[in-house]
Design goal:
By secondary structure, the chain is of the alpha/beta class. The protein is 39% helix and 12% strand. The protein contains 13 helices and 12 strands. Helix 4 runs parallel beside helix 5. The structure holds pyridoxal-5'-phosphate.
């Protein structure tokens, strides 16, 4: 009898973590490696947030278990955030706090999916979505988007993908891995379709809400279509905009029965998210936010630099996305060419492996994100390192024969 569970056979390890591990191993072996794989800001958590955490520890507020799905002070801060930033009215009973946006999304899927239930996921997608759906016993249904459509799902494609078994459509704007963000009109086209299919629920992952550039205006589905409010779970968190990936706090607003079910799952698995991180998050949401535009100015400059330099590399086409800190260029023009090692590039995995080998630049291949041949670059790293990495990519592409 096998020791490990059959359910493991349905899922794959995270490709983003695999490339980070490989780059780390090369670095340990003394190679000069620039890692553009990690999906987290290179900025430190702001001081006022750190100080709130220290205070919580010193005053004893962080010593004990808390309410399973979050302290009331944080739920109240999340209620205010949804109201003031998104125009959404939730009560604290409609708020769930979890260990990162990841746990919140996973709880929601486990709480709702029966075998055979379908979840529509536009591709390219964050690597964890299909795997979470599979772990929860559901069926991921990919809807391919194109670079020409800005990597956005059209209303027609959504309509075609809906079946009687569709339970959720999972939206992520701005997107990991493409950085694409839906305009109000583009989102409205999708919500118009969803209004006509009352059995479909909306799981919106707004994790990169604050990371948008060029005066782009962010919208979330329940905000622009109030008729979807009752069947939408709006997921967000402090990880990306507040530079708090290590603190592990995410949250969601949605229908009370779903929030209760998610709390039950959390009560029997992890219990409350870290108390000290919850107090830090109260300060993040209630405190000053002036560092966000400062960071965004830097992110925008980096995005523009990376897009310009990649478009000068032979065989690479890189669109300019609206947000997040990723670009998702196509490397189709390099496929079939031969790398300096003599290896012929047949896939985007070959492209990223040979790039790492030849030039010490770590990026992630597009295929695990649901579309290739392409790769993802995270530009949440020092501008000088980005410039050097892009010059190396240009040299690598120029040396392909
Ligand atoms: C699209 C998206 N959603 C959710 C998450 C998870 O966020 P957290 O670190 O809060 O679990 C990530 C993290 O990479 C992400 O890219």
């Amino acid at each position: 009898m096998a020791f490990l569970a059959d359910s493991l056979k349905r899922i794959k390890p995270s490709a983003t973590i695999a490339v980070t591990d490989k780059a780390r191993a090369l670095k340990l072996a003394g190679r000069d490696v620039i890692g553009l794989g990690a999906g987290e800001p290179d900025f430190d958590t702001p001081d006022n947030i750190k100080e709130a955490a220290i205070k919580a520890i010193q005053s004893g507020k962080a010593s004990k278990y808390t309410n399973v799905d979050g302290i009331m002070e944080l739920k109240e801060a999340v209620v205010r955030k949804f109201k003031s930033e998104n125009g959404l009215d939730y009560t604290t009973k409609q708020i769930s706090i979890g260990t990162g946006g990841k746990q919140v999304l996973y709880n929601a899927l486990v709480a709702t999916l029966n075998p055979g239930d379908e979840v529509i996921i536009p591709a390219p997608y964050w690597v964890s979505y299909p795997e979470m759906v599979l772990l929860a016993g559901g069926e991921p249904v990919e809807v391919q988007t194109t670079m020409a459509s800005g990597f956005k799902m059209t209303a027609e494609a959504l309509e075609r993908a809906i079946t009687p078994k569709t339970k959720w459509v999972l939206l992520n704007s701005p997107s990991n891995p493409t950085g694409a963000a839906y305009t109000k009109a583009q989102l409205k086209a999708l919500t118009d379709v969803l209004v006509r299919h009352p059995h479909v629920h909306v799981l919106t992952d707004d994790m990169y809400e604050h990371l948008v550039y060029d005066d782009f205006e962010f919208f979330t589905p329940a905000q622009i279509e109030p008729r979807l409010y009752e069947r939408t779970l709006t997921v967000n968190g402090v990880s990306k905009a507040y530079c708090m990936t290590g603190w592990r706090i995410g949250f969601a607003g949605g229908p009370e029965p779903l929030i209760k079910a998610m709390a039950m799952i959390q009560s029997q698995s992890t219990s409350n998210p870290s108390a000290v991180s919850q107090w830090a998050s109260v300060e993040a949401l209630n405190g000053p936010k002036d560092f966000i535009p400062k960071h965004n100015k830097i992110f925008k400059e980096r995005r523009d630099l990376v897009v310009a330099m990649l478009n000068q590399a032979n065989g690479i086409v890189c669109p300019k996305p609206e947000g997040a800190f990723y670009v998702f260029p196509s490397c189709a023009g390099t496929i079939g060419k031969t790398a300096p090692t003599g290896k012929k590039l047949a896939t985007d995995e070959d492209f990223v492996t040979e790039l790492l080998e030849a030039e010490g630049v770590a990026v992630v291949q597009g295929t695990p994100f649901g579309q290739g041949p392409a790769f993802r670059i995270s530009y949440a790293t020092a501008t000088t390192a980005l410039e050097e990495a892009c010059a190396r990519i240009q040299r690598f592409c120029g040396n392909l024969r």
